[in-house]
Design brief:
This protein has 336 residues and is α/β, with parallel strands linked by helices. Helix content is 38%, strand content 20%.
Length: 336
């Protein structure tokens, strides 16, 4: 076995998030010969082509091509072209697809502890979130995923999340009472929305727009970038600055596929991932202010939220869910 490949998951390697993570997954790796012709591999992505997340993934594709001397060509399939998040993630786990990106908390089907970063108000903001991903919390989550043949290529910062709806402004949790709000398909998000008095409606990412358009749901919650690029602003103009979560996405690679590559190619792909972590944060930061302005031009009506009231309403979720995550919960930073 290539011991460097197996042990990389325990090592930090610089960059904004400081992680280069791969896995041996208990499998003997082979130092296969380099492919004679370019190999096309797929990357599944649920969000719209115009998102800065997709721009980061295209950067990753370019870097993979450059660093492997053109031996691998990553094709980014945006807008859920390969299917829903859970389906594509399972395809990556089994080696049918090489890469995908999903919300870290959506991986709780593999291990419930992976929802730890999704706790409401777990981080005070972007810098604290990035510092945690750069440290032991990020390493521990990656190690859990290794056990399921999923390799963390990069953590993506996907912004602070806010509520939006088509019915009325939301200033306090009481304003959400009775609303049907889309929830990501993980227990923390579902419990959070229900605790605020709304009715959580679990839906895959690429089903939200049509559900809003048909008024099967009254609203959703996500970053302002997602709100604009997915065109939700057209159907849910009331935007509330709740900032209740810091969204953590993860770019995953197939452990079985990576294990069969020549060692030099594996390392090149991991280097591409490290570079992409830095670029993704830059792209996201640059896009955020622009998308706030675009949201207003498209008809969004932003409003301030009573953050202390939201924190108080969600205290029960913190109490009940922290036990779910075992010692990973102790790795969360102290927040005000």
């Amino acid at each position: 076995m290539d011991r460097r490949f197996l042990m990389r998951s325990a090592c930090a390697a610089g960059g904004v998030l400081g992680l280069r993570l791969v896995t041996g997954c208990g499998r003997e790796t082979t130092d296969s010969p380099a492919p004679a012709a370019p190999v096309a591999v797929q990357l599944g992505e649920p969000v719209h082509e115009s998102s800065p997340i997709v721009a980061a993934e295209k950067y990753f594709a370019r870097k993979v091509g450059e660093l492997t001397m053109g031996r691998y060509q990553v094709e980014v399939n945006a807008g859920g072209a390969l299917g829903a998040d859970s389906r594509v993630t399972e395809m990556v786990r089994t080696g049918r697809v090489a890469f995908c990106k999903t919300l870290l908390a959506n991986l709780t089907a593999y291990d419930k502890r992976l929802g730890v970063a999704n706790l409401p108000y777990a981080f005070s903001g972007r810098e604290q979130c990035l510092e945690s991903l750069n440290g032991e919390l990020g390493r521990r989550c990656a190690a859990i995923l290794e056990e399921h043949d999923l390799v963390v290529i990069a953590y993506f910062y996907a912004g602070d999340r806010h509520f939006y709806n088509h019915l009325r402004p939301v200033h306090t949790p009481a304003d959400l009472k009775g609303m049907r709000i889309r929830a990501p398909q993980n227990i923390v998000s579902i419990d959070m929305i229900n605790a605020l008095g709304a009715d959580a409606v679990p839906l895959a990412t690429n089903d939200i727009t049509s559900a809003l358009q048909q008024q099967l749901i009254d609203g959703a919650e996500n970053s302002v970038v997602f709100y604009v690029t997915e065109q939700h602003v057209s159907f849910a103009p009331h935007l509330s600055w709740t900032g209740h979560q810091q969204a953590v996405d993860v770019l995953l690679g197939s452990g079985s596929w990576l294990a069969g590559l020549p060692a030099a190619d594996r390392e090149a792909i991991l280097e591409a991932g490290r570079l992409t972590q830095v670029e993704q944060v830059r792209l996201w930061n640059a896009a955020t202010a622009d998308h706030i302005a675009r949201a207003k031009k498209l008809g969004a009506v932003p409003g301030d939220a009573d953050i202390p009231a939201f924190r108080k309403a969600l205290a029960s979720v913190l109490r009940t869910q922290r036990g779910t995550f075992g010692d990973l919960a102790t790795l969360l930073p102290e927040t005000d």
